[in-house]
Specification:
Radius of gyration: 21 Å
Strand order of the largest sheet: 1-4
Structural class: alpha+beta
Largest sheet: 2 strands, antiparallel
Shape: elongated
Number of helices: 2
Number of domains: 1
Helix content: 10-25%
Number of strands: 4
Order of helices and strands: EHHEEE
Distance between the termini: 7 Å
Length: 92
């Protein structure tokens, strides 16, 4: 089953959560009408193992081998605007 929430659903949910936790009525639409919320997430940037001559090392199937010790997470941001959705896939 697919559950989809759009931008306005999430704004209303955030307002309800603020009311419940802080006991304040805050209209997020009026707070900053021209700025959309920003979503911060982490994405792993892969570094691949290389020979001394710079050529990438491949496994027995021909895929590049990831150097997990040198691969690291990078923080990225995206804008969650009124054309965005969040979808949850729930097994029945």
């Amino acid at each position: 089953m697919q559950i989809k929430f759009d931008y306005y659903d999430l704004l209303r949910a955030a307002e309800l959560l603020l009311k419940q936790r802080l006991n304040k009525d805050i209209d997020l639409d009026k707070l900053s009408p021209h700025d959309y919320p920003s979503i911060e997430y982490k994405e792993r940037v892969f570094v691949y193992e290389k020979h001394k001559n710079g050529k990438e090392i491949k496994d027995e199937h021909g895929f590049r081998k990831v150097d997990w010790d040198k691969s690291e997470y990078v923080t990225k941001h995206i804008e969650f605007n009124d054309s965005s959705d969040i979808t949850f896939y729930v097994g029945e």
